[in-house]
């Protein structure tokens, strides 16, 4: 295919993705109240847990704040819901240039990466109220804590993205093993340091400073890493048996 044809195909896929996004954006306006409740639930749970010890209240800043809140929230919802479509468009654009074995592993990656990311986002949403409770709990007595929604929404999205991306790391470890870059035995030799690095990463990556959020990120990541090490060792053993069988076949076929 000529370069111009590639650009036309890319433009077509981008336009289709944009059209789906705009349709979902319009639909999301009708569910604005439910989306707002979904986003505010972690903050409301944290406020209930704090009780009368800390007075906190969420607010919207500026005359254009309510409109920007509506657009930002609905745009994020449309982007997330349309993700399967525009991710497929990216994959379909790249797919013709891949070999058959690369296509197979790409399908495996797509099948596993999505559930892992959603699992990480779910864990992040579950621990978010505790993180907010700890952070807002530092408010000195006699002072009220005012939470600007724009900053809160940015904090929430960062938290969920960190958890979602972190859950993808073991998958990349397996892919590196399949590519022959990392061996399972090497992972086992450095397991203790990798676990320490995982906890350090969790402490630095989580936007909140409470140990609960760090543990909820570090413990599943550690479990997923150990699971990926087991898979890597299994792949190495199979690869070793295949190489031994191939060498034996060569020796058998060679003339005496």
UniProtKB/TrEMBL annotation:
Keywords: Cell membrane, Membrane, Protein transport, Translocation, Transmembrane, Transmembrane helix, Transport. GO terms for cellular component: TAT protein transport complex. It is found in: Cell membrane; Membrane. It is a multi-pass membrane protein. GO terms for molecular function: proton motive force dependent protein transmembrane transporter activity. GO terms for biological process: intracellular protein transmembrane transport; protein transport by the Tat complex. The chain crosses the membrane at residues 14-32, 76-96, 108-128, 155-178, 190-206, 212-232. The keyword Transmembrane applies. It comes from the Bacteria. Signal peptide: none annotated. InterPro entries: TatC (IPR002033). PANTHER family: SEC-INDEPENDENT PROTEIN TRANSLOCASE PROTEIN TATC, SEC-INDEPENDENT PROTEIN TRANSLOCASE PROTEIN TATC, CHLOROPLASTIC-RELATED. Part of the twin-arginine translocation (Tat) system that transports large folded proteins containing a characteristic twin-arginine motif in their signal peptide across membranes. Together with TatB, TatC is part of a receptor directly interacting with Tat signal peptides. Belongs to the TatC family. The Tat system comprises two distinct complexes: a TatABC complex, containing multiple copies of TatA, TatB and TatC subunits, and a separate TatA complex, containing only TatA subunits. Substrates initially bind to the TatABC complex, which probably triggers association of the separate TatA complex to form the active translocon. This is Sec-independent protein translocase protein TatC. It comes from Nocardioides marmoriginsengisoli. The lineage of its organism: Bacteria, Bacillati, Actinomycetota, Actinomycetes, Propionibacteriales.
């Amino acid at each position: 295919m000529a370069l111009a044809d590639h650009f036309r195909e890319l433009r077509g896929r981008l336009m289709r993705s944009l059209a789906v996004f705009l349709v979902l954006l319009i639909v999301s306006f009708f569910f604005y109240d439910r989306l707002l409740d979904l986003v505010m639930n972690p903050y409301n749970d944290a406020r209930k847990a704090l009780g009368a010890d800390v007075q906190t209240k969420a607010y919207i800043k500026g005359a254009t704040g309510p409109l920007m809140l509506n657009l930002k929230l609905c745009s994020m919802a449309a982007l997330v819901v349309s993700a399967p479509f525009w991710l497929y468009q990216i994959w379909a654009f790249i797919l013709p240039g891949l070999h058959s074995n690369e296509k197979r592993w790409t399908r495996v990656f797509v099948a596993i990466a999505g559930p892992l990311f959603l699992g990480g986002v779910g864990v992040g949403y579950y621990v978010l109220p505790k993180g907010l409770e700890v952070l807002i709990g530092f408010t000195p007595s006699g002072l009220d804590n005012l939470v600007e929604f724009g900053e809160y929404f940015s904090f929430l999205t960062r938290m969920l993205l960190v958890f979602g991306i972190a859950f993808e790391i073991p998958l990349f470890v397996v892919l590196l093993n399949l590519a022959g870059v990392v061996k399972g035995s090497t992972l086992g030799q450095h397991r203790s340091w990798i676990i320490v690095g995982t906890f350090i990463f969790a402490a630095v990556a989580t936007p909140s400073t409470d140990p609960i959020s760090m543990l909820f990120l570090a413990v599943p990541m550690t479990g997923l890493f150990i699971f990926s090490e087991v898979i890597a060792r299994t792949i190495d053993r199979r690869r070793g048996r295949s190489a031994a069988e191939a060498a034996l076949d060569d020796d058998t076929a060679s003339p005496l």
